[in-house]
Amino acid sequence: MSAPFPHMFEPLDLGFTQLKNRVLMGSMHTGLEEAKGGFDKMAEFYAARARGGVGLIVTGGISPNVRGRLTPHGSQMSHFWHIKKHQKITSAVHQADGKICLQILHAGRYAYHPLSLAPSAIKAPITPFKPKAMSEGQIQKTIDHYARAAKKAQQAGYDGVEVMGSEGYLINQFLCTRTNKRTDKWGGSFQNRMQFPLEIIRRIRQAVGEKFIIIYRLSMIDLVEDGHNLDEVIELGKAAESAGATIINTGIGWHEARVPTIVTSVPRAAFTWITARLKQELKVPVVACNRINTPEVAEKILASGEADMVSMARPLLADPDFVNKAAANAADKINTCIACNQACLDHVFKNKRASCLVNPLACYETELVMQPVTSAKRVAVVGAGPAGLAFACYAAERGHEVHLFDKASDIGGQFNYAKQIPGKEEFHETIRYFKQRLVDTGVHVHLGQGQTAESLQQGKFDEIVLATGVAPRELTIEGADLPHVLGYLDVLRDHKEVGKRVAVIGAGGIGFDVSEYLTTTKSPTLDNDEWHKIWGIDKTYSERGALLAQPLAEPNPREVYLMQRKDTKVGAGLGKTSGWVHRSTLSKKGVRMLNGVTYRRIVPEGIEIERNGEVSVLAVDNVVVCAGQLPFRPLQEALAAQGVQAHIIGGADVAAELDAKRAIRQGAELAARI
């Protein structure tokens, strides 16, 4: 029998060292870099991925100096006392038979503090601080600081460094006329502008010698106006190779770009076409990245020659043993990243510690530990949604006898509705994973079996956990019982017919999901080329930034009003890194998003509303109610009446916007201590 994923597990010879496979753990800031005791926690975080089989790890971005920090208290590598901290990480990774590189990242105008520097004094749209233009002396000193950081990384035991040259950070700012208006030798022609990264690579190579990995993260498509063109990308790639880069990694899009690059609605492997194009021009290994989340996708990229390595960051948050599971031909056991960003990037952008919605142990490896139990208990779990599934699997893994009940015929709870939303097809993977994990951990699963207080007591359980979920909040206005009024479950669960004109009440996550569902005939996430056209990405790369002059208009079968009572911007409560994508998607389809709405009454011809002091009737065929949820816990009340205490987790505890992140973490935390 041939080995699974042979290209993925082929060693990569770099001349002076060899990588055991073609998987690179991409850079990702965790928030532990600045936390008290964070380096001890990071050491175990990275060591777990090294034990899990990753060929090469890249850390989160570390600044070469004070001005380059992302935040006022961000991490940097510039003093001798920094070396000792980082030795904790490199030692732990090497003991786990791994290799690791430090990413050097200077924020430039993306810095969230008033000391920011950039090629020119042009403020970024995503920070409140205008940078100062760098002097010639500051440019030279910054180049020195990159080399100093690399040397100290070497002294700390790192196997190499990655020079962050993409995503709109300082080096990218030097490369593009959008942000470089200089008239000296660092501005003007592209040959002048690219001297900054090339000098950094050359000076690093001089500082560290030949037997040290230098990865250059090259922005292959900027997805902003006045970005690179293809000839410049190729020229820079070749020059970086000549300057001493060992590996060229791919960067896609600036952070200020209005094109999504990693959210769940982005097709898998959406950007490997540009990596494949550059690979034709280079001799050093080239790495593909973005939305590669299964070994099957990784293998296809490598087998087709689109890249020499694949980079995955969030998939290794979701499952530290991803690589080992793939090597053991156990891909069905991988906890797949669904690219939701809710616990990783959304946390980091709020200066919180990163974790993972589907793996709450991520970045908590030293704190949320599933130790084997000393005395096994017989435990009942009612509800097979995300909270109940997480608890059941972790508790059984620890050694408890766990019985999981649900009145439905399948597991998944609210995830079964989420997976139907165009762009959220990845949610199928979480249900698939839990089905396998229930088997692996030995949970006794009882589907189609509703429970009562009496039946639970008859089961003689030592502990009862209620994960019974939520009930939709009912509308309490005149006309709410008219036949054209539907709840979101009528639409997503029961698939009732919906007319051509629709008013959606409630603009939280469910309101957006229902609006997306109602306005999409075919999910562009499942059609790579279609998705590129809709988001205005030019795969021929005939224009700067790889942007189309005119994006493709997505067909919309319905006229939809998405409404909320609040005066804030519609969708303001959605995730920081994905909310703008949802708003933009619906806006392109002509969905009318209305805030400050008072729902007066529902009438046969539609719904009567008041907004800005004006009363009007929206003539619609259906009104779909997405006005929130309430905890569903009649079992708790029945048990309490009989003097039986139960643990409440998930939506049954707090019904805030169907928060799967909180529900799964709550299940894990309870399982760790029960």
TrEMBL record:
Per the UniProt record, which residue ranges are transmembrane?
none
Q: Which UniProt keywords apply?
A: Flavoprotein, FMN, Iron, Iron-sulfur, Metal-binding, Oxidoreductase
Gene Ontology BP terms:
fatty acid beta-oxidation, unsaturated, even number, reductase/isomerase pathway
Q: Which residues form the NADH:flavin oxidoreductase/NADH oxidase N-terminal domain?
A: 8-331
This protein's source sits in the domain of life called Bacteria
Gene Ontology MF: a single term: metal ion binding
Top EC class of this enzyme: oxidoreductase
What EC number(s) is this enzyme filed under? 1.3.1.34
Under the heading CDD domains, the entry gives: DCR_FMN
Please report which protein family the annotation says this sequence is part of: In the N-terminal section; belongs to the NADH:flavin oxidoreductase/NADH oxidase family.
Q: What is this protein called?
A: 2,4-dienoyl-CoA reductase (NADPH2)
Source organism per UniProt: Aliidiomarina maris
